[in-house]
Amino acid sequence: MKHVKIIGLFIAAVWLSGTDACAGQTVSGHGYPFITNISAEEYDGHVQNWGFTTDDEGMLFVANTGEVLRYDGVRWHSISVPGRRTFSITSDSDGTVFVGGAGDFGYISRSSRTHSRSYEYVSLLPGVADTLNIENIWGVVAAEPGVFFHSNRYVFFYDGDQVHYHETDTRFSLLFEKDGNIYTREAEKGIKKVRANTLIPWEDGRFFSDRSLMGYMQTEEKEFFCSFRNCYEYDDGDFREFDHGASEYLEQNGIDNTRVLSDGTLMIATRNGGIVQLTADGEVIRILNSDNGLPSNSVYGSYEDDSGSLWLATVNGISRVDVSLPFRRYDHRNGINETITNVSMRNDTLLLASASGAFHMGPDGVAQFHEGKTFCRNFHHHRSGLYMTCTEGVFRYADGRFEQVLSEFRPRAIGEFRGDTLIAGTGEEIQVMLFDGGQNEVLYRFEGTGHRIKSIARCSDDFVWMGTEADGLYRLEFEKENGNITGHKLTYVMDEEDRQSRVSVAEIGGETFFLTTGRGLMSYDADADSLFPASRFGERFTEPGLQVFWATEDNGGNVWFRAGEQYQVARLQDDGTYDVETGLLSRIDDRQSNAIYADAGGHVWFATEKGVIRHDPERKFDEYRSFETKIGDVLVRGDSVVTGGDPDEPLVLDYEDNDLRFTFSALSYHQPERTEYRTKMEGFDDDWLPWSDEVQRDYTNIPEGRYRFLVESRNVYGVTSESVPYYLEVLAPWYRTWWAYLIYIITGSLVIYTGYRIRLHQVTRVHRMRNSIASDLHDEISATLSSISFFARAIENEKLGGDKSRFVSLISQSAGDAKEKITDIVWAINPEHDDWKSFALKCRRYASDCFESHGIEYELDVDGDIPGRMDMQVRKNLWLIFKEMITNAVRHSGARFVRVSMKHSGGRLRLEVADNGSGFDSSEKKSGNGLRNIRARAGQIGGQLELDTRPGDGTCWKLGIRL
């Protein structure tokens, strides 16, 4: 608690005496730089940090108590180190990062992977004797001869090949570079110059033999050495105590580390009081601690990056302080804890209108609140004073206080008419009043427009513009007699469709402009008595639908705008034209923009819901600084990390791996969450995809071919990085490879050949079928027809006497046989009879008719439910075989009983016809047509035929065929 009180008292003292570098003794010196705090939850590491560095690409590395952290502008990555502790970190001129940890030291190795590099720690301990008790490495410095590390007992020097060391029997503290040489402080012996193989005492350094040494700073003209409690200025062998405004503060809070910033100012980080920024002459610029923005008062390391941002390593996370930006905040830390609606300045006093009163802030940087004025809006500078309009009336500021000058009449806007005469208006009433700073006389009054007045601007002694909150623009003209106002004319200037528009009137460069919410920036054409788009500051301000809220001209002729939800400045060029810039002003990201004010000193103020922001145009900042975009991991199917991407060695993927995810980031650390990216896959995308804050891009089902993936980033300042390429090739699927096409050709050829063979077989089969039918017709019908022919000739032959009627009977019988044979052939080749059921039915009917007509007893056992369809050739031959067997049994066997069986089993059909007739000697009947035909037809269908017969012992036919 004692420290807290001391800190508070000292801050008040600093505010009373301190100034900003390059600023005069005004309120402008007491704003706060933009501060971004990063918690341990965000970077997913230990809360305590020790130091920072960047490599040659701009990648940030942090010495964290738990590991080394790497930040690419989007994601935090960790690099494991032995002992899981790092205390010091730096990088050499080549960008190699060197790390000191718990009993170990080494460097970060980057793999040769293109874009998506891998980082890993490489220890230098293999080059150090095992007998050394190294302990913690508290400091590391990279210089021209090599890299130096120090622990309490040792100083190590790594020359790129070997590690050398120096040992002390007391204690080493601090490594620093001075005039191109490396020095260290050895307790009880003073400061020594470090060489590869020796320590050389520095005679003047004996001053620190009994003093601690925490930091060394060297500006262009001065050198400073700091112990734990105070700093000393060194001049030609003489150390004298540095006379500065924070001596008591540093003595109370302790010095931990120091550095000279790029603007030549001094930064001192303390053990218990945050940081102190001083000029080289000892003036306090600012103190930052846990009371005004830092997460902790203990700052163990600091680093200034290329953009001028100051990174602070604390015991409670990381802070980035944008000291190089030309912006400073004035907010609750200055006592401003309300939304600011307007801002102005009178002499050296800052005046702020707020939602419930007003503030004034003098050179001490502490805001004083004036309550009881409810909502205050506008300021008006007049020769009699500064006037402020509020809902309770009009107040005049003088001598550090606001005095109410109007109470019954409460105008929303005040404008100058002439001399001491002002015009004030509400929505219901407008008054012309004489202001003398005390008594105010109403000279003329009349009924208002019915809509709230937003701004009033004088055009001439008889001509005034009045902009409204939601009713467009009016022109007010006065009629006068003997200098007195006797009447007025109020004319609506805009089109009727603009009745809902808010209009502010602004005087810029001696010309009147109208800021509208819907028609952009406009000017007045007196001849046409109408408004027209004003393109003086660029065509962007005339876009249809554009809202222009504020416009203020500074003392250099530059015009500051709030238009289209962006801050912009139109900078006046030597030829009278304007160059519009937006980039740097993009850093002002407060939600509300309530006013812009340019003071006489060249500063521009922005009123927001968080207070006010001051912009100092004289403080130079290069927002156009280039930066790199990095392609991070390239993932296959969202899982496996792949490598590659070189033009000469692209990433080669199998077709089944053609689902890719690219991750990327930008090494731009100013509001990285507002960085945008766009990508294009050449060969896949027709054009760049739209800008987006997405930090990854997914591609699915990428066709085979060669591609180049490109990514660009655009930071908060609107600066676009160079395109980063990544090369890849997706192989064709196996079914679209050359050998697959060869298989297709071979297979196609085989299919064509097979089709040809099938067709040939079909043609041959048809041919055989024709031959078979012809043969059947010839064999079965030819003899019968020949007989008919012979019988007919016999009838015609007159030489043959007797009764010829028997020949007619033979002709009739032969014709019947021929008809039956033809019917059998036609039935056999008809495809409608391909089912087994029809075939079985025909067989039963034929057998039963034959047996019954001859009085023969019989037994039929014929399967009708045989699966599949019958082949025509099988059906024909099987039918003729069956018919021949039945006919033989009926006509020639003399049988009294015949058993017929046709059964299907196991894919085979077995036909059996057995009779109890006379039988015969099969050897004697071998040449008979019946037997020959049965055997021939059985052979045609691949059947196995058996004949079992003996004279007097019956006949049994057995036929088996595979279906």
TrEMBL record:
This is Histidine kinase domain-containing protein. It comes from the Bacteria. InterPro entries: HATPase_C_sf, HATPase_dom, His_kinase_dom, Ig-like_fold, Reg_prop, Sensor_HK_TwoCompSys, WD40/YVTN_repeat-like_dom_sf, Y_Y_Y. It comes from Natronogracilivirga saccharolytica. Keywords: Kinase, Membrane, Signal, Transferase, Transmembrane, Transmembrane helix, Two-component regulatory system. Residues 776-963 form the Histidine kinase domain. One of its GO terms (biological process) is phosphorelay signal transduction system. The chain crosses the membrane at residues 738-756. Residues 1-23 form the signal peptide. GO terms for molecular function: kinase activity.
